[in-house]
Design a protein that fits this description.
The protein is of the alpha/beta class. It is built from 37 helices and 13 strands. The strands form three sheets. A five-stranded parallel β-sheet has the order 2-1-3-4-5, with helices on both faces. Strands 7-8-9-6-10 form a five-stranded parallel β-sheet, sandwiched between helices. Helix 32 runs antiparallel to helix 33. The chain starts with 9 loop residues before the first strand and ends with a helix.
């Protein structure tokens, strides 16, 4: 790329502010001496949260300079590390120059740990210094050398792209997998497009794949994403789940496949897909995706290979176990024993291999087959039993014929270990263990109590026993802070078998479906109200349970429950841009239901329209007119308002504005009559966009203000941002730049606070209208090019308030610019834009110029 003179290399300076203020100024002078651009937090007096600000600055920087002395820095509420450490972690892949001031007699312990890790990782060069003057000299010298080296090597500094689905941090170290890890990394280095790590449940496939992926991720410029798929039960949902995890929004008519193709393009990246055994039929689709994306590699874990052309399988076996004649030293070095000892110590046990217990410890690991999960399950018993006593107990239990005796020996080992652990449970623990298997993706304590309890079962006591025996785990807390109970998939499979043996499967699945349905009914008004974000976050955690409940209803042909649950949660899928999932449910109901009652048929018809299944005008109008009558007759005012809203949208898109406006006004009145502010806000926003398109800006402004008022009443930030953006567009078109800038500034604060990519793109288009009206049509085209390129690549759906709003701006720019300048401006905006940075910096510049002009006018007066 040929850079214009203003695009200088950006050097991000990281340090604590107070104690190193002179040193920061020294680094700034060194950077400017080389005619580079220093990027420093204190230079950005910007109306954004500090963490968002420094992250945005760092993402746009080319070189990272870290300066450290005694203070570790402030750790914000809800964060695990300080901003200082966060900046260092985010700088991975960039050229890094680190400087440590000494002496440091009062250095924080946390900073000492960070510096120790930096030295151990050996990923960045670091030097010691004593004075600001010395620092200025060495920074200038090191930057000059670094630039010379990279210039001589050819090409630009490679900047890492931060993964949007990062690898989970390991809680414990990986033991005994060095050879397999090196084999996976070697295959990826050789350019293998698909590497599948296979092995039985509990052997440690995920741990191995994560360790290999972490090695790849440490390299400069590496882009690695992690997508867990254990709760996905259908091959058709795999790519949609990947798109969800990556934040690739799939609008109606855009498949997850196309969204992923747009997202990755030609750039190199590694995608780790974990737990594919229940959806191996997706293999051909993954192969098709790889064929379209030459830079993408996949690392998958599965109990069986995917059988895709070009797949390389790495079979994972159990950990090595000591031989019968091994010495105590050899026993202690065996990976299976090492894992046993480490997990025992993690539970507070003082266990070590001695001459007296070496034989028993070795026999214990051999008896467990070296299988990591089996070892994990056995460790809690070492609190009560010596290794020899535990080995004797295992021997007497596991000699019994195992269920599924035709399984491979390693899988029998895991099953036997699970059966042994299960046999040692109390009766309440066994009951709860089996019943927990009905949950997909885990459950909160409240959910466990609602679904699993009965008159004789004490949940708290039974759950404590299962936790102590490692049969269940405590996962990430819910958004409300509630603990989440989870099972590893092999354990859950075994628990499902126990539920069948207890003949409780049907009853527990019914209870589970009723609990999810009750959750949907409770959520429905809040998903449209002031707690929308809270409930959307909650359903993010419960999405696998939603899916499981609907699958139960579909299997039992309980279409009434499926339709009601789909309607109650449709807004959640709408705001998550994931309507493809309820669409598939509704299509299955339409296919399998022979003769639905009229109310259920009306729910199905309108639901199909909302989800984008029906598009033909001759089908849409009957689907909407009749349901409104049914809903009115059955006393379902909300459903009737929804059907009128979508009929109005249909008329608008069909080119009948007068009819559309009458129907939309009726929908708004219906929503208002039941106090449904979110519905009113949506319809009024649509009316505002319609009147703006027809040129009636005063009427457009009135409807948009009503939408804003309703949105503020329920504290719905996305809706508020849409209404403000619409008002800014209308005011810009009406040459009211002052109000337009104020509205746009407020909208930008909302979308940046929520990190809403959708909102940022539409605020850019509104800003483009302001910029063009201010006399810079080329910059307006560049902003619209950046916004539309981002929406195209990420398959972002269209905001109603912004539909076609940028067209007058582009039309005016075409008249004012030559075709060459117009196309060049568009291309400049379309080149991998960072819309958040572009919006924030440009709006600050425009507002600053306006305030400066106002101050100057005051002085003149």
């Amino acid at each position: 790329m040929i850079r214009t003179p203003d695009q200088r290399l950006r050097v991000f300076v990281s340090s604590t502010l107070g104690e190193l203020a002179p040193e920061r100024q020294a680094v700034r002078r060194a950077v400017e001496r080389l005619h580079l651009s220093p990027v420093m937090f204190e230079l950005g007096a910007r109306p954004h949260p500090p963490r968002q600000l420094y992250r945005a600055y760092l993402e746009q920087s080319d070189v990272f300079v870290g300066v450290y002395w005694q203070s570790y820095g402030w750790v914000a509420p809800g964060e695990d590390v300080s901003g200082l450490e966060d900046e260092y972690q985010l700088a991975a892949g960039r050229p890094q120059l680190l400087y440590i001031k000494h002496p440091a007699p009062e250095r924080d312990e946390a900073l000492s740990e960070l510096l120790g890790r930096i030295q151990t990782e050996d990923q960045a060069s670091y030097r010691r210094f004593s004075t600001p003057e010395e620092l200025e000299h060495v920074v200038a010298e090191d930057l000059a050398v670094m630039l010379s080296e990279r210039f001589g090597a050819g090409g630009e500094p490679e900047v890492a792209r931060r993964p949007v689905a990062p690898l989970p941090a390991p809680l414990t170290r990986t033991i005994g997998r060095d050879r397999d890890t090196e084999e996976v990394v070697r295959l990826l280095d050789e350019g293998v497009r698909l590497v599948t790590v296979t092995g039985p449940g509990g052997v440690g496939k995920t741990r191995l794949a994560l360790e290999a992926a972490r090695k790849v991720a440490r390299r400069p410029g590496a882009e690695v994403h992690f997508v867990p798929l254990a709760t996905v039960g259908s091959p058709s949902l795999v790519l949609a789940s990947v798109a969800d995890r990556l934040g690739v929004r799939g609008m109606t008519g855009t498949t997850p496949f196309d969204s992923l193709v747009e997202y990755f393009g030609d750039r190199p990246a590694l995608l780790l897909l974990d737990n594919l055994e229940q959806v191996v039929a997706v293999g051909p689709e993954l192969g098709r995706l790889l064929a379209r994306l030459p830079g993408l590699q996949m690392l998958a874990t599965s109990r069986q290979a995917l059988r895709v052309l070009g797949e390389h399988e790495v079979v994972t076996g159990p950990l090595d176990v000591p031989g019968r004649s091994a010495t105590p030293e050899d026993v202690a070095r065996a990976p299976s024993v090492e894992l046993l000892l480490e997990r025992a110590r993690a539970r507070g046990m003082t266990l070590a291999v001695t001459a007296e217990n070496a034989s028993a410890v070795a026999g214990l690991c051999r008896r467990l087959g070296g299988l990591p999960l089996a070892i994990e399950l056995a460790v809690p018993r070492l609190r009560l039993l010596s290794p020899r006593a535990l080995l004797e107990r295992l021997g007497s239990t596991l000699d019994l014929p195992a269920a599924g005796g035709d399984l491979p020996s390693r899988q029998r080992t895991l099953r036997d270990a699970l059966a042994w652990s299960h046999d040692l449970l109390e009766s309440d623990e066994r009951a709860l263990f089996a019943r927990l298997s009905v949950f997909g993706g885990g459950a909160t304590l409240e959910a466990v109590d609602a679904v699993c309890s009965d008159d004789g079962l004490v949940i708290d006591t039974a759950l404590a026993g299962l936790l102590d025996k490692s049969l269940v785990l405590i996962g990430n807390p819910s958004p409300e802070g509630d603990l989440r109970i989870q099972m590893l998939e092999p354990v859950r499979d075994f628990a499902e078998e126990q539920l069948d043996l207890r003949e409780e499967t049907a009853a527990l699945r019914r209870r589970h479906m009723e609990w999810v349905a009750a959750l949907g009914r409770e959520a429905q008004p809040f998903l449209c109200g002031p707690r929308q974000r809270e409930w959307a976050d909650r359903f993010d955690a419960e999405r696998a349970n939603l899916r499981a409940a609907v699958e139960t209803g579909l299997a039992w042909k309980d279409f009434e429950s499926v339709l009601r649950l789909t309607w109650d949660t449709m807004v959640y899928y709408y705001i998550r841009d994931a309507l493809d999932e309820p669409r598939d449910w509704l299509v299955q109901v339409a296919r399998d239901a022979d003769d639905l009652p009229r109310t259920q048929q009306a729910l199905l018809d309108v639901g199909l329209l909302i989800a984008g299944v029906v598009a033909e005008p001759e089908i849409i109008e009957p689907l909407l007119d009749e349901p409104t009558e049914v809903f009115d007759r059955e006393g379902l005012p909300l459903e009737a308002a929804v059907s009128r809203q979508y009929l109005g949208l249909h008329h608008w898109h069909s080119g009948r504005p007068d009819v559309a406006i009458d129907v939309l006004r009726d929908a708004s009145r219906r929503y208002a009559s039941i106090g449904h502010d979110w519905g009113v806000a949506q319809v009024e926003m649509t009316l505002g966009a319609a009147f703006a398109a027809m040129g009636d800006l005063d009427e457009a402004r009135r409807h948009l203000h009503e939408s804003l008022s309703r949105s503020r009443h329920i504290e719905n930030h996305p809706q508020m941002a849409q209404a403000l953006q619409g008002l800014a567009l209308v005011d810009a078109l009406d040459n009211r730049l002052g109000p337009a800038l104020e509205e746009l500034s407020d909208a930008t604060d909302l979308v940046l606070a929520d990190h809403s990519l959708t909102g940022a793109t539409y605020c850019l288009e509104a800003l483009a209208a302001v910029v063009r009206t201010s006399g810079d049509p080329g910059e307006a085209v560049r902003l619209i090019g950046a916004a539309r390129t981002t929406r195209s690549r990420r398959a972002i759906p269209e905001w109603t308030a912004a539909a076609g709003a940028a067209e007058p701006v582009l039309a005016a720019a075409r008249r004012e610019l030559s075709s060459d300048v117009y196309l060049r401006s568009w291309r400049d905006g379309a080149q991998d834009p960072d819309v958040f940075a572009l919006l924030g910096s440009h709006l600050a510049e425009v507002v600053g110029e306006r305030e400066q002009a106002g101050s100057l006018a005051t002085e003149v007066r």
